[in-house]
Amino acid sequence: MDFNELNDKIIKSHKSFGRKPGINTYNTLCFNLLNHLNTHLGIETCYINEKYFDDTLLLSREKGHSNLNNDKEITDNCAFILKYKSANLIFSFGHQNKKNLQKLSGHICKIDHNDYKSIHIVIFKDEQELNEARKLSNANVYKRGFFTSFDKICTIVRGIDKVNYEKTFSTGRKYISSTNKPENIKVLPDMIDSHSSVVTDNIHVGEKGSRLYKLTFISEDTIDILPGQFIMIDTLKERQNELLKSYRPRVIGSISDVTPNVHNDLGTKQISYLKRPFGIYRTYYENFDNDYLSKLNLEKTLATILYTVKPHKFEILYKALEGGVGTNELTRIAKEDKIEILAPLGSVFDLRVLLREDFDEIHIVGGGVGMAPLVYLVQALRFFNRKVKVFIGIEKYSSLAYNDLNANSFTGTGKNAKIYIDDLKMLGLSENSDIYVSIQSETDERQKPDIKNVFMGTMVTGPYEEYLKDHHKLNIITFACGPIPMMHKVHDITSRYHIKSYVLMEKRMACGIGVCFSCVCQTIVNGENHNSRVCIDGPVIESKLINWNE
Amino acid sequence: MNKSLGVKIKNITLKAPLLTSSGTSGSRDEINLLQNRKQVLESLGAFVTKGVSIHKSLGNPDPRIVEVRSGILNSIGLQNKGVTRFFEEDVPELRKYGIPIIVNISAATISEFGELAGIIKTKDKYNVISGLEINVSCPNIKKGGAAFGSDPVLVEQIVKEVKTKVKDSLCVITKLSPNVTDITQIAKAAINGGTDALSMINTLKGMAIDIDNMKPVLGNQTGGLSGPCIKPVGLYMVYECFRSIPECKRKEIPIIGIGGISNFNDAMEYILAGATAIGIGTQWFINNRIFEEIHKGLTKYLDKKKETISNLIGKAHGNK
Question: FRET partner for B133 with CA separation of 20 to 30 A, picked from A26, A219, A530, A550?
């Protein structure tokens, strides 16, 4: 049924209509949602504005639903207010006048003072409208708003179809063109495209002489990059030059194409030809503070159906490899330089579907710079309000230090700022109970670090194994990224305790879109050997599928 | 649609003289992942698949790729899932592209080439496939591959074998290797075997060595060189075949020019050298808009010159 038609029908005959709960219409769904939150989660609900909704539908009114006096500021917005724990959830409807919604969302932000106790959730009639709302241009309309759709509410109200769950999880992008689209994934991922971006910072990280850098850039469009997905960057600064771009060679075939005096030994030095793949370290959202996830405390079931405006600012952490061409070119990129990226790449690893199973703890095991894409995974997990334990392996304590204290993208709180640790804290993890750091060097030149759980002279897998010895009875899922031997070890440890684990693979790549077959890794699926493409079958791959003896 | 861009490769009508190159555009629906998928398919004259063989092949060991100056070396090794699954899984998707599909085929023996061509002809119930490109030039496989491509007798036999199986139902294109003393000899052999068209060039054999561990970088030790660095070689070979082979000069046997094409300028050079259409491979890895850009460039050029592609094929010859 068409939404407007439905809307009409509801207004005209809302009373008789409303007495048939269970009819698949949006208002019954909304009331079902309220009832669900009320009966299962003990959340007090009330609503304002009776215009479209029949309160007789509130089945368990006596259990906690109540009427709220119309607030002058929030009239005509068809809003429900849920009071849960110490927070208010305010629902309004996407088909309302945009100006009214803007007013309402502004009002909510004003009373909330960035406490994230009043959360505005806009319900859209379908996935297309939901996708539309997630554009950057709407960031100020639904200021700090969370979005969902009627279909998505259905999935939590009616419970999850087990068969569909199995079918849809980790299906990659293959369903995009197939006719039988799995029903659960309605918001299609962003299509792959080139995006022009402006660098806001490119700073050195780690001890003196370390080759680690953090690059921050803002894309001209928002890009919905999911955790585990990656981007490819054209690392050569000169290729971004507008003049060259208008001529569009994209290939610098001879020295004369490049501005002289950039590489002193350019005559013989190799310059990059292909783009380079990088995982995402962190993403930023317009109107959301950097540390909002440490305050946000969404109800878990609800969180899996909520979306925000798409991100437009991204960070990557990369290591300039000795003798490497692309990564060293990237270190020459400076603030305000343009870079071109291809994104989002990688299979659609849908955490939302995975998280319908309620894990007690989610474990993150990162070795060295392999920790970088896992920080973004933690960011997503924190949005879904999950309990995360992070195990980091580094070479020396000083590997965590920021060198450039004046850098803009510096997220620390003083001169002792630390990469990974500070970001994880901002995401709401506790330094004392959620973060475990293993330091490879036996005798670090510095004083003992000010982190509680530190293990000296060991690889990350040692303390992780110890931790599992005491905690393996919990319902756990593990994600690991780092050197191959480390991921192999994590696979061995987790499989011993029958814990499901995923790894983020990395390989030499050329195209990033699955056409060149360069980046394969050996897998065994149903007893048959395969060479799976890391770029589109991964990079997130369940560890038991990988042929570790390769 | 711009009519001045249209060309014909035997019975295949191309709305534009642009093709994907085998092995660089996947074999299924990978293009559909792109935001600009519509523009890509609108710019393409035909789609050439990744190499298909009778049996599944896992391909070569890792690492399979290394970047060199202005190009790449690869040793993928014809990884594919075999012709049966190709028809089950990929052909229905390829059909949706709505453009002519050319299947690149490879085999280890002459009779296997014939068998594979026969299977494809039988299985193609919906006439999705317009042509076959015989791969007698892959430098990365031990059996067959380049070993065939450098022997004119074998090339003639293979083409004959395939042509006997498919008759005129499918356009047969022979893809030639540049790793030979005289490419025109091989081209002539393919023509004697009955090929409908030629495509050239495949990758040039090459390698890279890691001076730290003192070993070849590629898992397969050697690989095939592609990218902008090979353009002058490919261009020369197209020019030479067009110049010295009467069937090519009379445009009875069209040439598909491939090798390092990275922008419209390169594409036009190949056409002027004698190519009827051009294939783009490696550049597609680094620029997802390359087909649109070249299409646009060609259109503009033809408007300015008040010409058509057909008129300009081999134009670089003859006016001394």
Answer: A530
Chain A residues in contact with B29 by the CB 8 A cut-off are 176-177
Q: Cβ separation of B262 and A249 shorter than 8 Å?
A: yes
Question: Could you read off the pLDDT of A58-91 as tens digits, one per residue?
Answer: 444 444 445 555 555 555 556 777 776 667 888 8
Domains and their CATH numbers in chain A:
3-157 (no CATH), 193-345 (2.40.30.10), 351-545 (3.40.50.80)
Please judge whether B58 and A531 are an interchain contact, meaning their C-beta atoms are less than 8 angstroms apart: yes
Helix (H) or strand (E) holding B282: helix B282-286
Q: pLDDT tens for residues A371-417?
A: 999 999 999 999 999 999 999 999 888 888 877 666 655 555 556 78
Tell me whether 0.85 is exceeded by the ipTM: yes
Tokens 């409807």 belong to residue: A93
> Which residues in chain A are closer than 8 Å to B76, comparing Cβ atoms?
516-518
Q: Which of A270, A484, A517, A536 to mutate to test the interface with B (most CBs of B within 10 A)?
A: A517
Per CB distance under 8 Å, which residues of A are interface residues toward B? 173, 176-177, 190-194, 234, 248-253, 270-275, 323, 325-326, 342, 507-521, 529-531, 536, 550
Residues of B labelled catalytic: 138
Q: Which segments of A323-459 are extended strands (E)? A: 338-345, 361-367, 388-394, 435-439, 453-456
CATH number, domain with residue B174: 3.20.20.70
| Of residues A323, A326, A515, nearest to B26 (C-beta) | A515
Dihedral sign for Cα atoms in the order B90, B91, B92, B97 = positive
Q: Where are the beta strands (DSSP E) in chain B?
A: 7-9, 12-14, 18-20, 47-48, 65-68, 71-74, 101-105, 129-135, 171-176, 197-200, 204-207, 209-210, 215-216, 222-226, 255-258, 277-280
